[in-house]
Amino acid sequence: MRLVVIVLFLSASLPCQASAGSDWNFRVTLDGREIGRHRYTLEPGGQGALLRSKADFEVRFLFVTAYRYDHEAVERWQDGCLLSLDSRTDSNGEVVAVNAVAGSGGLAVARREGRDLHAGCIRSFAYWDRRLLESDRLLNSQTGELVPVQVIPQGQERVRVRGDERMASRYRISGSNLQIDVWYADGDWVGLEALTDGGRRLRYELQ
Fold this sequence. Notes:
Elements: E1 22-30, E2 33-43, E3 49-61, E4 64-78, E5 81-91, E6 94-103, E7 106-111, E8 114-118, E9 137-139, E10 146-148, E11 150-161, E12 164-175, E13 178-185, E14 188-195, E15 201-206
Antiparallel strand pairs: 1-2, 1-15, 2-3, 3-4, 4-5, 5-6, 6-7, 7-8, 9-10, 11-12, 12-13, 13-14, 14-15
């Protein structure tokens, strides 16, 4: 079983600023059933913002664990561009690590398949920063792959955030074997929904 995880943000040209630090704690469901949590912590600093994320999912079937997923990542950002990334993912016992560092030639990425060098400003799936919506390629922090994407506005709708109904703007990020919807209310990232390979719905609800 493979989940599309978005180790994994109203004008698209305006960034979401976090001057005093920000924290997003999401309840994660699969087809409406809770399977775990994914937490993001953003720490601003003079050498760039530091983002820490940790996901812990468990899918059970008839009281038996059918799938476990643990993901941790540390990303450093400056001016909307990725300076470095270190991630480790355990997907049902298969462990994958990714390391990336920005230099004069671009962002050097070391992953299981080898080493890549990407020129220009590279962003990961950093939903907390709405500059992501301007991107046509995003780095998957779990695999280290640079993924071509297209972002399409989906209009506005009401969503439940921490027990309250709020009006939010919805955007769809799509690509090859990829469909992710993200919601922003008053400029803040408040929700996410992704389709897995099997057509199941993985949903993030802000707590």
